[in-house]
Design brief:
This protein is of the alpha+beta class. The protein is built from 14 helices and 18 strands. The protein has a six-stranded antiparallel beta sheet with strand order 3-2-1-6-5-4, with helices on one face. A five-stranded antiparallel beta sheet has the order 8-7-11-10-9, with helices on both faces. Strand 9 and strand 10 form a beta hairpin.
Length: 621
């Protein structure tokens, strides 16, 4: 070894002259250095492992308290919460354990001195602690103070509180000192032993030991590498074999741990995905959902239930079944068949047909709700109430009933006349003039029935095909309307319609036949509902451009009976007729057909009317 770089005084007094002593000194120094590095590395790794263990244990404690206190906070069971916190703080490592609500107010606070029993601390109600803004676990380690602080959120469908845990970690410093002390003892013993044995085991044993040392430092990588064992002292050979065995066992254990961690992470991801899916289903569902716990109280109600009933979460969460039943009954409007909340749930094995519960709510909006429920054998959730909005179905059923009633009434009136007149002609001898008069009445009533049936068939075809049979083409509006006016025969004693010819082309995309049918219907109504005479005007209108194109219209105005505001609001309903006297013929379906036709062609019908002054109908395209 080249020692020329050392100062002469050191070479003369400290550096031995003999090779054997030099080897002993160098190997001893190398061994001390190696053990020191190994001790430092081990101290660092052990401290890190211990720190992670303490952090994991602190997080696990905080998580357990958060899971256990969720329902207690929802049910406001503060006494039980304090008992839970006292039990959870019964560990020497816990310095303090606090539970806050979402606003940062203390719900329970337990402090514990070393080797002392946990004690409750009562914080002032006005004291508010700044809690984390994000619903994530937060861990802060202060090694200088020997303390680990953990914030853990308490969540249901939202963050309802926080758990704050202060955990003692002074043992980390003691661990480092113990490792360094043990390392020093081992170093002294190793140097002494090596100084004794190096005279016998020179180069080859040292090489084997050096290889074993390097291999030992690599065991932490758990790669499963095998040490090549050279012939030598039994201790060295056994050390190599033990290191090889330890390497294999460590590798196997590491593989098991990694596999377990992968499975745990996959399970956690699956649970998180399922929770996210359930949360999304509950949040986005248009139907209301309410769950009850084993104590019969409401645990959860989604936003759809609040929207349908107009209730607030604070008015629902925590109620028991009778209280919720009373709250729903207070919302019931006239027409509800809602009996009770228990009637919504069918008992297991019940043979009686289930009766649907209908609740009509008038505030804030009038809705019709269908309530049904399911019982569960789960310990957490015992019953689930489903609330569906059936307002549209209920309205459609009412409209269907009213339509069938009106249709039957309109068909029955001419049918009664036909049956009456034919019965008279069959059972009595009548004069020829009387018979002809009755046959004329039968003919007129038959025409009326045929008109009603034809218009009903028109409506049925329109609703079934929704314009699929329309032959749409681009034509000038005047070319559609003018032939109808030209062919229209005004009633006896009435003047033909007064037409204001358009000043420019008016291209529209319509089914020409359907459009002419609509115009003819409105024109006929203008004459029918102005029996006292007066001119009928036909005008062409142009509106300002919308979305890059103009809107065109034909307007028909009469000076007849007109409509009241109440009748005007109902115009377009099937079988609705403003004239109740029966002097003006009609079925009450014509305007409905016109409105359907115009809307299917992309237009709209506009009506202005004043009682006693006349009506103006405008068909925009």
């Amino acid at each position: 070894m080249d020692t020329s770089r050392f100062p002469d005084v050191i070479k003369r007094w400290l550096w031995p002259r003999r090779l054997h002593h030099q080897l002993v000194l160098m190997v001893s120094m190398a061994l001390v250095l190696a053990l020191g590095l190994l001790g430092g590395y081990t101290a660092s790794e052990q401290a890190s492992i211990a720190l992670r263990g303490h952090e994991g244990q602190a997080q696990s404690m905080a998580r357990n308290v958060a899971i256990a206190s969720g329902n207690l906070i929802l049910t406001e069971s503060l006494d039980q919460l304090e008992e839970l916190v006292l039990r959870s703080a019964d560990f020497d490592e816990i310095r303090s354990l606090r539970v806050f609500n979402a606003s940062g107010q203390t719900l329970s606070h337990v402090a514990r001195g070393r080797a002392q029993a946990p004690r409750l601390v009562f914080d002032p109600p006005s004291q508010v602690v700044a809690v984390p803004t994000r619903a994530d676990t937060s861990t802060v380690t202060d090694e200088a103070q020997g303390q680990i602080s953990v914030w853990y959120p308490i969540q249901t469908h939202q963050v309802i509180g926080w758990v704050h845990l202060d955990y003692r970690a002074e043992a980390l410093s003691d661990l480092r000192k113990r490792i360094w002390r043990n390392t020093l003892v081992v170093a002294v013993m190793a140097v002494t032993l090596c100084a004794t044995l190096l005279a016998l085991f020179l180069r080859k044993p040292m090489q084997s030991l050096d290889e074993a040392r390097r291999f030992a430092t690599e065991l932490v990588n758990a790669e499963g590498r095998q040490l090549t064992i050279s012939p030598g002292p039994v201790e060295v050979v056994e050390l190599g074999a033990s290191l090889n065995e330890a390497s294999m066992l460590l590798r196997q254990q590491m593989m098991l741990i990694e596999d377990g961690l992968r499975q745990q992470k996959a399970h956690e991801r699956q649970l998180a995905e399922q929770n996210d899916q359930l949360s999304a289903i509950f949040a986005l569902s248009a139907d209301g959902l309410v769950t009850f716990g084993k104590d019969g109280q409401v645990l959860f109600a989604n936003q759809a239930f609040m929207n349908l009933t107009g209730l607030k979460p604070s008015e629902v969460i925590g109620l028991d079944a009778p209280q919720l039943d009373a709250r729903l009954k207070s919302l019931a409007a006239s027409g509800s068949t809602y009996e009770s909340l228990d009637a919504c749930f069918k008992d297991p094995g019940q043979a009686v047909a289930f009766k649907e519960q209908i609740l009509m709510v008038s505030s804030p909006n009038r809705v019709v709700l269908s309530l049904s429920g399911q019982r569960s054998e789960s310990d957490a959730v015992t019953r689930v109430l489903y609330v569906c909005d059936v307002t549209k179905q209920y309205t459609l059923d009412q409209m269907k009933s009213e339509f069938l009633s009106m249709a039957a009434h309109e068909l029955r009136t001419p049918m009664v006349s036909i049956l009456g007149f034919t019965e008279l002609m069959l059972t009595r001898d009548l004069k020829e003039a009387t018979r002809k008069d009755m046959l004329s009445s039968v003919y007129r009533q038959s025409q009326s029935m045929a008109a009603i049936l034809n218009e009903l068939l028109d409506l049925a075809r329109i609703e079934a095909r929704r314009g699929q049979d329309f032959k749409l083409e681009t034509v000038d509006l005047a070319d559609v309307v003018n032939p109808v006016i030209a062919d229209f025969k005004a009633p006896s004693g009435r003047d033909a319609p007064v037409v204001d010819e358009p000043l420019l082309p008016m291209p529209v995309h319509v089914d020409m036949h359907k459009m002419q049918q609509a115009v003819l219907n409105i024109l006929s109504n203008a004459y029918k509902y102005s029996p006292d005479g007066g001119p009928v005007y036909v005008r062409y209108l142009v509106a300002d451009a919308e979305q890059g194109r103009h809107r065109f219209a034909v307007e028909i105005e009469d000076h007849g009976l007109g409509l009241s505001a109440e009748h005007l609001a109902r115009l377009g309903e099937r079988f609705f007729r403003a004239d109740k006297s029966g002097n003006i013929p009609g079925t009450g379906l014509g305007v409905s057909i016109v409105k359907e036709l115009i809307e299917l062609m992309g237009g709209r019908m506009q009506v202005r009317s004043e009682l006693g002054k006349g009506t103006t109908v405008t068909l925009w395209l």
